[in-house]
Amino acid sequence: MGNDKLVTLDDRVPSLKEQRKQKANRRLLFFLLLFFLLLLLIVYMQSPLSHIRSIEVNGQYIASEEAIIEASGMNLGDHIWNINADEIQQLIERLPEVQKATVERQFPTTVLVEVEEYPRVAYLLKEDRLFPIMANGLFLTELGRHDFPSDAPIIIGLEEGELLTEFAAELALLPEQISERISQIFHDATESDPYAITLLMTDGIEVRSTVPNFAEWMAPYPSIAQEIDRTLNGVLHMKMSPYFEQFDFEEDAEVESEG
Fold first, then answer.
1. Phi then psi for 98, rounded to 5 degrees?
2. Is residue 44 part of a domain?
3. Where does the chain cross the membrane (predicted)?
4. What is the pLDDT of residues 23-82, one digit of tens each?
């Protein structure tokens, strides 16, 4: 019985040696692969393959692509893995038109910049020229002579300054269903109310309100406008307590004839 055990052990020795040899070969192969991967990584990092070959900018409308790339500080040929995305985003967001920016690497050599600009809330009519106004109150370069805006109302009689900035912020708070119904806005300042404004709506209604709390005062406009008889002449006052003021032209005509 003892001889049988010795023979069995001797038979197993070649098998154990083969297993050890296979493990050693696998270990060697692993280190060789790791070595070549590291070598390829070093070659990639040191070669033009890891340099920026294109910078793509999406989402911009007012700010030019060139201005955004210049603000980012990136250049073609820079090492793509040396850029700091958070820092570049902050640099781009310093542009007055840009509200938010994101920067992503796209393997192997492209950097993608996504831009979200402040919306245009109005156009200021000044000396027969139209100047776009952003939601942050930024006053932009005038539109081309043949460009006529249709995406935001035109402001008339309001000068650039704190009041315009405040009004731009109020306009930015308006729901789109209301802002798109405003055609023109006139600044009708008086001694008693330096913030008074008059709005001409696309539905034909004339509205009078004020700059402070403008977005809040205008919030119920859609429902109130539905109740107004369009055959009547008058003005809709949109303040804390909205009401419609009807004009009686017949009485005015009689007074003028008597005079």
1. -95, 125
2. no
3. 28-45
4. 777 888 888 888 778 877 776 666 677 789 999 999 988 888 999 999 999 999 998 888
Which structure tokens are listed for 101? 């920016």
For residue 108, say if its preceding peptide bond is cis, omega within 30 degrees of 0: yes
Query: Do the domain assignments include residue 95?
Result: yes
- pLDDT of 88 over the 90 cut: yes
Residue 25 CA to residue 204 CA, distance in Å, equals 86
Q: How far apart are CA 169 and CA 154, in angstroms?
A: 15
Q: How many CB atoms lie within 10 A of CB 170?
A: 21
Do 181 and 244 lie in one domain? The reply is yes
With beta carbons less than 8 A apart as the criterion, state whether 238 and 212 touch: no
CATH number at residue 105: 3.10.20.310
Q: What is the CATH number of the domain that holds 161?
A: 3.40.50.10960
In whole angstroms, give the CA distance from residue 114 to residue 56: 8
Phi and psi for 116 in degrees, rounded to 5?
-120, 115
